Amino acid sequence: MKSALFAALVSATALAAGPVLAKEKVTMWFWGASPAYQQALTDALITPFNASQNDYELAIEYRTSVDNDVRVAVMAGQGPDLVYTSGPADVTPLAKAGRLAPMEDYAKKYGWEDRLLAPVLNTCKQMGHLYCLPPSVMADGMYYNKAVLAENGWQVPKTKDELEAVMKAAQAKGLYASVTGNSGWQPINENYSSIFLNQIVGPKYIQELLSGKGDWSSPEMVAAINELDRWYKAGYLGGSDYFSLNFDSSLSLLQQKRSPFFFAPSFSYQWAVSYFKGADIENLGFTAFPNMNPMQPYPLYSIGSAFTYSINAGSKVKDGAAMVLDMMMSPKFATDIAKIWPGYWSIPLKDFPNDPSATGITRSYYDAMGNITEAVKKGQYGYKIVAYFPPATKDVFIQDLEAVWLDKETSEEMLAKAGKAFEREFRRGLVQDVAPPNF
Fold it and tell me: N or C end of the chain: smaller count of CB under 10 Å?
């Protein structure tokens, strides 16, 4: 009798309170991350976001073909609320087609301009609007094995001559000069295009090119590609194994002391955790690429974003999607995700957090991010091709660079293609406004 009375009271109370409203779902697509990284994203983003308010529920779908899936779905007026792309250059066509929602009002509401590094955030400002946010600042640089350098009496190089001297000495000992490669992912070539253009012709020249004022086939540009071609043919980029190495195999060789160097973007820390552990956990270092032109400052990092997120213009939950983005852009998320997944979610915060309890690879990652952030604040940054160049122009510095290495094209022919591609994209309004560096 008492239990029946209690149930009736509970039922009456529920009716008086009204029906419980279901949360609106905010959908987000992401690439096919490993189970461990999926769990890390659940713990650092999904669970905290869903617990933080009563209006929205974040759901992430993992897709191995996310780039193609997003392009097809969003251009058809469908797709998820939060739109993934592999960098700001891939945002431009979607924005120009009207498939992305401008976000400057949200930027003002949440203070993103005050919180985030302007040169990185500005990659998402296109055609007069903010069309994306970059949750991952990446900077081209030089990983090195501290033990290899110490055991051979080599110093961490800061200039081109110092770097070449160590690489030649490594080759003489039967080591790789450096380890890297594009097996399974041809866009790796872009890392080298970015390094050599920014180091040799310089960020100011690149900014002029992107403003439609420079000469893509100038002697300076030809010299940069010729120098990169010389490095490839000298075996400095993985020797004869460039096309069979990838980031995993390269980091494995670096850990095994088969090379002193691995030239790659800072997001590669996410793979380093699988190799530098145990007795080797303190051996990995990261620094700026050695100076190749005394007219450029040191350190100088060519920067960009590994990926972006935008809000689908057709989304019915734009406010909820913006709330997710705001949580992504927080120091807490940056710290929480780095415990398991360092390197990839490198939020471009003006004051990047530093976890004093971090050790090993995560400690090295925090040190690297501190150095990168300070350099960017000082204006000592260049323009990573994948982030700043429009799509067809970017592809020339990936595909045709390989043709130069294999003697199927000359540097002059490659750069002539880049100039023509850029001219077409510039006329179509596919080039973002790029502010000049301030050094």
Answer: N
Extract the runs of DSSP E, i.e. beta strands, from 17-128. 24-31, 56-63, 82-85, 125-126
- 102 upstream amide cis, omega within 30 of 0: no
- Cross-strand partners of 27: 59
Total residue length of the chain: 439
Q: Which helix (H) or strand (E) holds 114?
A: helix 112-115
**434 and 303 in contact (C-beta within 8 Å)?**
no
- Name the amino acid, one letter, at 216: W
CA angle 182, 184, 189 (to 5 degrees): 25
Closest listed residue to residue 206, CA positions, set 424, 430, 418, 420: 418
Query: Beta 24-31 vs 56-63: how paired, if at all?
Result: parallel
Question: Do the Cβ atoms of 200 and 223 come closer than 8 Å?
Answer: yes
What are 159's strand-pairing partners? 291
pTM of the model: 0.91
Distance CA 397, CA 247 (A): 19
Name 160's Cβ contacts closer than 8 Å, sequence gap at least 6: 290, 291, 292
| CATH of span 138-302+381-427 | 3.40.190.10
For 322-368, what is each residue's pLDDT tens digit? 999 999 999 999 999 999 999 999 999 999 999 888 999 999 999 99
Q: What is the pLDDT of residues 377-431, one digit of tens each?
A: 999 999 999 889 998 999 999 999 999 999 999 999 999 999 999 999 999 988 8
Residues of CATH 3.40.190.10 domain(s) within the chain? 20-137+304-377, 138-302+381-427
Task: Compute the distance between CA of residue 411 and CA of residue 228 in angstroms, rounded to an integer.
Answer: 10
What single-letter amino acid sits at 396?
V
Q: What is the pLDDT of residue 1?
A: 46
The CATH architecture one would assign to domain 20-137+304-377 is: 3-Layer(aba) Sandwich (3.40)
